[in-house]
Amino acid sequence: MQISTKSNHPQAPQAALIEFKKVYKSFGTNRVLEGIDFCVQPGESLVILGRSGSGKSVAVKCLVGLTPIDRGEISLMGQNISQLNENQLNSLRLKIGFLFQNGALYDSMTVRENLAFTLKHNQQRLTETQVQAAIAESLKNVGLEEAIDKMPSELSGGMRKRIGLARALIIQPELIIYDEPTAGLDTITAREIIELMRRIKQKYHATSIIITHDLICAKYTGDRIIVLKDGGIKAQGTFQDIEQNADGWVQSFFLK
Q1: Rounded distance between C-alpha atoms, residue 64 and residue 92, angstroms
Q2: Residue 35: CB atoms within 10 Å
Q3: Which residues contact 69 (CB under 8 A, 6 or more apart)?
Q4: CA distances (Å), 109 to each of 85, 112, 146, 161, in order?
Q5: Which of the listed residues 90, 110, 162, 250 has the most CB atoms within 10 Å of its CB?
């Protein structure tokens, strides 16, 4: 039995899992990120909302070390990204689950093989029994146990997204990055993906970053939202805060 002890001393505030400090990034004369500041606490779901070209995807590429920043500092899991070599970055990336916009499955592999490949790359000492058990559990989490031996070409767009999420979850990540999780899906399928993301958060309490321009997705999956415009943070807060923001450009997201 685990016995908890209470202290009269106040607990120190929990360190942010992610922190951007005055981050700048340009490509030639194109200034993509203009000194952005934000942080993400452990267990929090942060939505990065913005139109195409606003800097959403570049911010995430900078976060995982795929694109070097020009100025500022990015801290991920207590480490300064700019100070890490490629091996250290790769070790850090093994703690991150990615759900790509198109699912990004290997077309020549079955669902089982896609998941096994990812897990074995991440955790090389697992037995085959452990690998197969993890695959079964991941597919159960997304409600697609029956798809285990199907090829990606046999799956609908929504099923590919769900398998992509199973692949992200199978490594038991500390952070999940969702890249436009509802893009290209019909309304019903998009809502199924949103509900699945909510269930995953409740079950695993994983920290997540959700890149989207879908207001429904932002409303139901984000604890907090930052709105990017021209590489800067135009607004931030809860969905209700964003909805009530008086700025005309922010309000343009809500126009039908």
Answers
A1: 8
A2: 15
A3: 23, 24, 25, 33, 62, 81, 82
A4: 31, 8, 16, 16
A5: 162
Nearest alpha carbon to residue 100 among 146, 132, 66, 147:
66
pLDDT tens for 112-167 read: 999 999 999 888 888 999 999 999 999 998 889 999 999 999 998 888 988 988 99
Query: Could you tell me which residues are beta bridge partners of residue 38?
Result: 20
Other C-beta atoms closer than 10 Å to the C-beta of 220 total: 15
Instruction: Find all residues with CB under 8 Å of 125, minimum gap 6, and list them.
Output: none
Task: Give the sign of the dihedral formed by CA 229, CA 234, CA 239, CA 242.
Answer: negative
Strand pairing category for 207-212 and 175-179: parallel
For the full predicted model, state whether its pTM sits above 0.90: no
Residue whose structure tokens are 């699912």:
103
